[in-house]
Amino acid sequence: DLLHSWLIDDNPYAWMATVGTRLRFIASLRSRPTRRDPLRKRIDRFVFNSAQCVLANSLEVRDFLVEEFRIEEKRIEVIENGIDLSRLTPRRPKEAVRTENETPIEDFLVLFVGRLDKVKRADFLLESFSLAIKERPNMSLWMVGEGPMKEELANLAANLEIDEKVHFLGTRSDVGDLYHAADLFALCSETEGLPNVVVESMACGTPVLLSGGANCSDLVSNGENGWICDEMTIDRFSSLLVGIVDTPQNRSAAGEAARESSRERFSIEKMLKNLKKMYLEVE
Question: pTM of the entire structure?
Answer without folding.
Answer: 0.85
